[in-house]
Amino acid sequence: MVGSSVRRSNRPFRGTAATKPPEVEVTQPQSSLTLRSTVVGIVVGTLICLSNTYFGLRTGFIAIMSLPSTILGFAFFKMVQDHLQFPFTPQEHTVLVVIASSLGLMPFTIGTVGILPAMEFLTGASENGPYHLDWIRLLVWSIGVSVLGVTVTLPLRRRFLVQEPLPFPFGTSSAAMIGSLHRDSKIAERILLAQNELDCVDNKDKRSARDDAEEFGDESLHRTWTRNNNLILLSFCLAALYSFSAYFLPQIRTVNIFGSYMAHTWLFSLSTSPGYVSIGLIVPPVTTLWIVVGCIVGWGVLSPMATIRGWAPGPVSDWDSGSRGWIMWIAVALILGDTAVTVSTMLLRTLSDYVFPYAADFLVSVSNTLPLGKRNRHFRNEDDTEPLLGFSEPSTTSVHTSSLSYQDDGWSASAYLWWIFMGLILCFVSMFILFGSSVPVMALVFAVLAILPLSHVNIRCYGETGTGGAAYIAKIPQFLFAFMVPSSDPNAILLSLAVAGVVEASVWQAAEMMDEFKMGHLVNTPPQSLFYGQLIGSLVGSLISMLVYRLYTTVFHFPSDGFPMPSAHVLISTARLVYGKGLPPGLVVFGVSASALGAAFKILKDLKRDSKLSSLVPSSVALAAGMYIMPEMILAQGIGGLIHFFVLKRWGNTKEAALISVATGFILGEGLFSLVTMLLQSLNVPHL
């Protein structure tokens, strides 16, 4: 694969805006999965993994860094372009982004910011905890849950890219960035065709993407990427300087903007972390708005009420007896209400799109009374008769469809089933090694088989909205699992967490992989290269992520003010809720009301999705995040959200890349420099 080459004409990496250089013969790799793209992808992904582990344990926030990966990867090859044997192609670029993104998101996928801390630090003695994982068990867990989601995505690629094309905002944005950086007008054309197909508008109603690519000269491109690289470097250095200074002067980490009473009693202060501000620069401003609203309602209204009424008599910061733990249950209720509507809607749509049409076909064949031409005109076409686990010759009537077949894309249905079977076996074996005979076989079979339909649901959710529901969809098997493992089983809570971890990892990976298939489809990258890139990123990332996690847990105390592990608390609370444990007083009425509100907000948001009023409908998940994350972090994100809003208001999307560059530098700088502070901590270097 690496090293084999063919001779073909290709556009050089550099040129001038005024004249086009003549085409030359260059040695080009036959596969887009090259050694250099793999190595750089692993390096970039490792940087993102380190940062995501740090911020995930502190805030529960995990950054989807596909666009920053695109910029960082291009910047590296731009710097060394004079020493390259052959030009850096958009297809290589795509594989690089796939490897970096999958590796960088491993802290969420294998649960080092949620499931594992909950098992190791939050389970009590009555729950057979704390359940500490040694290096061998940690490795078994990491490998066991890292590939199943990748394999179950394979047979769904044609369904969600051709037969029922979904927008996949992140994948489309990354493809557009790659096309812009490489000045590839064909990529711009493919994106335009895909958008026209989704929007049902004529090409002439939109500005030509080819014209945009041609007008974007190399001189302008050079200025843009140079500026963005400088922004990344500057913000990285500032964040590193902040982290270093904050270690020796920890008092600069927060500012008591509302006074010392509000800060110490009700935890209302402002973090000076540039990383938290960067979250607001990345997240859409309307989402940040509802997170801040959730913070005000949760910490400003519900927290004092629970304390004053005696429902949470302990210190506000205490997860068990304080109002912090009480309002966290309200957040869980909001999430569960939203999840119930999301999953129900997706299941109904799946039935409508797959089960009902084939049922109608069956009735037609039996009664011969219904016209065949009226069956599900919404999206089915002649290609839709293709078996889900098979291939047919691609149609040549559309650029969007014909790109689905490649020289290295000749997998059969048996190959698909083989990969899925291997993923299932790996998951089964790892669970039995970890939990042995305490795992009911049928319960584990049910949990693993539930991954297939739930992955389908999450792919649709992610493809339509750009926001996945993996963390919330994973709670569904927890409730069903309770019917198979009784509360009298001392391992019930641990097994519930393990089930949530397996399902969460798989359904998240499925959505992420399909998003990357979308990006590769638009850039015309062979799917097998993307699949192997995802496998490489997942396997390498599982090793790196578990190593970083164990370093953190060895040096720092968990949970603590510095690492409160909010995601782990939400997961353990849900597991206890399933078995009717741990509910604080005064919660029933507020919990039921919050769940109903979460469902109502989700329904309204779906009904108003295409309306300008959609942003006025609260996001249940955003409100919940504002309730279980500390106010100091939320207020810092709010400042970033204000900056994001005013930049978009003043310059539109033209400065979006600059915002992403600044945020990337801040997040990577603070996240990576946490390793330096970890070293200082382990050496017992004193604070000033």
From TrEMBL:
<feature type="transmembrane region" description="Helical">
    <location>
        <begin position="261"/>
        <end position="282"/>
    </location>
</feature>
<protein>
    <submittedName>
        <fullName>OPT superfamily oligopeptide transporter</fullName>
    </submittedName>
</protein>
<comment type="similarity">
    <text>Belongs to the oligopeptide OPT transporter family.</text>
</comment>
<feature type="transmembrane region" description="Helical">
    <location>
        <begin position="586"/>
        <end position="604"/>
    </location>
</feature>
<feature type="transmembrane region" description="Helical">
    <location>
        <begin position="93"/>
        <end position="115"/>
    </location>
</feature>
<feature type="transmembrane region" description="Helical">
    <location>
        <begin position="441"/>
        <end position="457"/>
    </location>
</feature>
<feature type="transmembrane region" description="Helical">
    <location>
        <begin position="135"/>
        <end position="156"/>
    </location>
</feature>
<feature type="transmembrane region" description="Helical">
    <location>
        <begin position="326"/>
        <end position="348"/>
    </location>
</feature>
<dbReference type="GO" id="GO:0000329">
    <property type="term" value="C:fungal-type vacuole membrane"/>
</dbReference>
<feature type="transmembrane region" description="Helical">
    <location>
        <begin position="658"/>
        <end position="680"/>
    </location>
</feature>
<keyword id="KW-0813">Transport</keyword>
<keyword id="KW-0472">Membrane</keyword>
<keyword id="KW-0812">Transmembrane</keyword>
<dbReference type="GO" id="GO:0035673">
    <property type="term" value="F:oligopeptide transmembrane transporter activity"/>
</dbReference>
<dbReference type="InterPro" id="IPR045035">
    <property type="entry name" value="YSL-like"/>
</dbReference>
<feature type="transmembrane region" description="Helical">
    <location>
        <begin position="231"/>
        <end position="249"/>
    </location>
</feature>
<feature type="region of interest" description="Disordered">
    <location>
        <begin position="1"/>
        <end position="25"/>
    </location>
</feature>
<feature type="transmembrane region" description="Helical">
    <location>
        <begin position="531"/>
        <end position="552"/>
    </location>
</feature>
<feature type="transmembrane region" description="Helical">
    <location>
        <begin position="38"/>
        <end position="55"/>
    </location>
</feature>
<feature type="transmembrane region" description="Helical">
    <location>
        <begin position="616"/>
        <end position="646"/>
    </location>
</feature>
<dbReference type="InterPro" id="IPR004813">
    <property type="entry name" value="OPT"/>
</dbReference>
<dbReference type="Pfam" id="PF03169">
    <property type="entry name" value="OPT"/>
</dbReference>
<keyword id="KW-1133">Transmembrane helix</keyword>
<feature type="transmembrane region" description="Helical">
    <location>
        <begin position="61"/>
        <end position="81"/>
    </location>
</feature>
<feature type="transmembrane region" description="Helical">
    <location>
        <begin position="289"/>
        <end position="306"/>
    </location>
</feature>
<feature type="transmembrane region" description="Helical">
    <location>
        <begin position="416"/>
        <end position="435"/>
    </location>
</feature>
